[in-house]
Amino acid sequence: MPGYLGNKSDSQVHHLAAMTQDCKIVEIKKLDKVYFVPDTINQAIIEKFTQCKHCIKN
Ligand SMILES: [Zn+2]
Q: Dihedrals φ, ψ of 2, to 5°?
């Protein structure tokens, strides 16, 4: 199972193991879902995603 999921429509990345209802991951459309290789938050940031404030703490 992947650790991080990106949403192309709002450029946010979520930490799946820590997701909350506020992440609204079920509302992300299939075509908007992005996974990262390697599956790390750093890779998501390199790809210009913003960390979700609900599931990723700085
Ligand atoms: Zn989130």
A: -70, 155
